[in-house]
Specification:
454 residues, alpha+beta, Pdz3 Domain, 2-enoyl-CoA Hydratase, Chain A, domain 1, six-stranded antiparallel sheet, 11 helices, 19 strands
């Protein structure tokens, strides 16, 4: 089952993938003309009698407005454009994530989690009628240009974003490789806007990075939840276990979900399942029973059993929050960092007959203890703000091409010594205050657990 997080990356950026269909109401039986209409049998029938006239009145009003606009508006506008605009306006009035995508936008959304696509590499959301950066994706033009979680995008190539839907913003930021897009942004707490010109490029689909911090302790970073995230994470774990087998095996993992904007729900649940043997991972609850679903963990031979600390921040959204919430509520991991983004809604992607697509919020998701994180976020067990590295250190997480799993190796790479690998971990720790704290906590978790058990 394929599910969609995105905040604007496809699948379902947190979607349940269950078809929703309205059951047709049976036609009422005809009554003889002289006889009075029979009284409704129950409250539902009474409600139907009351609701239907208002529906007709609303449709009548819409038809009248459509006719008036077509006849008297200052410019000639096609009926198709007017109806599309009305549908988009209706969806935008529901919540920031429901929208209508034209055929091209729908195709782009499908490519964003399963194939190569071009853009600047940011996840965005709509808050208080402002386009806000949820998180820049690492190793992308936006990340290198310095865009940050919480930035407000004021305009795109001179066009104010307040005039656009969220999907229109996405479509205008994306474009052919090598072309430039001009964004006017306002950094969080900044007093003035800044113009940033970014050259579009291919957005990397590799979503897992791994590095040894100390003997037996590994940093595993998930940048998004795309089609192969679980597979990539399993490969990273196997490689780490092989790497440290001679020195006593793996002792702990720091799972880094900072600035991970989310992605596919099935990947979020399968990633959480790697660390859980049993119990609820997440519950999906909507207005209709058909959207309700409970995802549970299953015991597997390759389940990770070592201590785990999860890093989160304000850019950790949707799928990231599902994983963090599941591991926290099941007492499988300690959460360190800052309060997460707070996107707890489920969007379903529904293809339409003309090749377009509808992204519709159909449910909310709940962590194992029954909490909804919608607009609230996940609160870490141990709150710690990120201390920025020195100005001369440009790489916020010090990740380069050579750190990517399955990167193209040179002869020099293949000759990399154990000392080189340890030095990389030391460099990372020296520039990342939250990671240093997470490492100390994962090293001490067995002692902490022993104290609690006694």
């Amino acid at each position: 089952m394929r599910v969609f997080g995105l905040c604007c990356l496809l699948g379902l950026l947190i979607c349940c993938g269950i078809d929703v269909a309205d059951a047709a109401a049976p036609a009422p039986a005809p009554t003889p003309a002289p006889a009075p209409a029979p009284a409704p049998a129950d409250g539902a029938q009474k409600a139907a009698v009351k609701v239907n006239p208002s529906k007709f009145e609303a449709l009548k009003r819409f038809s009248q407005v459509l006719d008036l606009v077509e006849r008297f508006y200052v410019r000639d506008v096609g009926q198709g454009d007017l109806i599309n605009g009305a549908v988009k306006g209706m969806l935008q009035g529901l919540d920031p994530h429901s929208t209508l995508m034209n055929a091209e936008e729908y195709k782009e959304m499908q490519q964003s989690t399963s194939g190569e696509f071009f853009g600047v590499g940011i996840e965005i959301s709509l808050e208080n009628n402002q386009v806000v950066v949820v998180a820049p994706i690492e190793d992308t033009p936006a990340y290198r240009a310095g865009l940050l979680t919480g930035d407000i995008i004021v305009s795109i190539n001179g066009q104010p974003t307040q005039e656009l839907s969220l999907q229109e913003v996405v479509s205008r930021i994306r474009g052919p490789k090598g072309t430039e897009v001009e964004l006017v942004i306002i950094h969080k707490e900044a007093k003035s806007a800044q113009t940033v010109r970014i050259v579009r490029d291919a957005i990397p689909l590799i979503s897992v990075k791994s590095k040894q911090l100390e003997e037996g302790y590994y940093w595993m970073r998930l940048t998004r939840f795309s089609e192969r995230t679980t597979e990539e994470l399993r490969h990273a774990i196997v490689a780490a276990e092989k790497d440290c087998k001679a020195s006593g095996g793996m002792k702990g993992i720091v799972l880094d979900l900072r600035s991970n904007p989310g992605g596919l729900l099935d990947q979020a649940t399968s990633v959480a399942d790697i660390f859980l043997h049993e119990g609820v991972i997440v519950s999906i609850k909507g207005r209709l029973d058909v959207t309700d679903h409970v995802y549970t963990a299953n015991a597997q031979d390759d389940d990770v059993k070592v201590p785990v600390v999860v890093l989160i921040n304000a850019g950790s959204a949707s799928a990231s929050e599902i994983v963090a919430g599941a591991l926290r509520d099941q007492k499988r991991a300690l959460l360190v960092g800052e309060r997460s983004f707070g996107k707890g809604s489920v969007q379903k992607i529904i293809p339409l007959a003309d090749g377009s697509g509808l992204k519709l919020t159909v449910a909310l998701y709940y962590t194992p203890n029954g909490s909804s994180i919608q607009a609230e976020g996940i609160q870490p067990d141990l709150e710690a703000a990120f201390e920025p590295p020195k100005p001369e250190d440009k790489d916020r997480f010090l990740v380069r091409e050579q750190n990517l799993n399955r990167h193209l190796e040179t002869k020099k790479d293949k000759k990399k010594t154990d000392k080189d690998k340890k030095d990389e971990g030391k460099e990372q720790l020296a520039r990342d205050s939250q990671l240093r704290l997470a490492l100390q906590m994962v090293k001490n978790l067995p002692k902490i657990s022993e104290l609690h058990s006694n």
